[in-house]
Amino acid sequence: MFSYPDQHDFPPKNEKDWNFDCEAMVFFGDSLHLFSKNRFKSNFVTKHYVILARPGRYVAELRDSIRLNKRVVTGAALSPDGKTLALTAYMLGFKWGFLPFTKASTFYVSAFSKTNFFSGKIKRVRLPKFLIARQFESVVAWDKDCWLAANEGIGPQRAALWRIKK
Fold this sequence. Notes:
mainly beta
């Protein structure tokens, strides 16, 4: 069980302060690394929290934050060698007020110091665009130069797995 050090209201009074949704996490060393998703009134800031990966009650350590251009983080994975962190992120909008669309990317972070992921070099790779909006929700390393990203199935959108070159 854990709590966030910067969350004092449950839920926060202002929707713009609801940056505590967590869909993306990785295990590294002896800890879980959590990445927040600010889905309400988004400022597109992702916070990186750390908690020990063993039973107990913890207050997560807020390690860092980053603003990803009009994207909310929904998935995270580390390469097998622990040298690259991948984050899937997307934004959902509506053209003409009714036609849903998404812009999705995978952000690859490398050359970071210890577990200060956001101190590293960041490379953005756009995920495939489609006529039907897709919510990319996960990522995993497949081999040295290839990762897999998946989108969930909602309505006319079918769940699918995509091969992404780094």
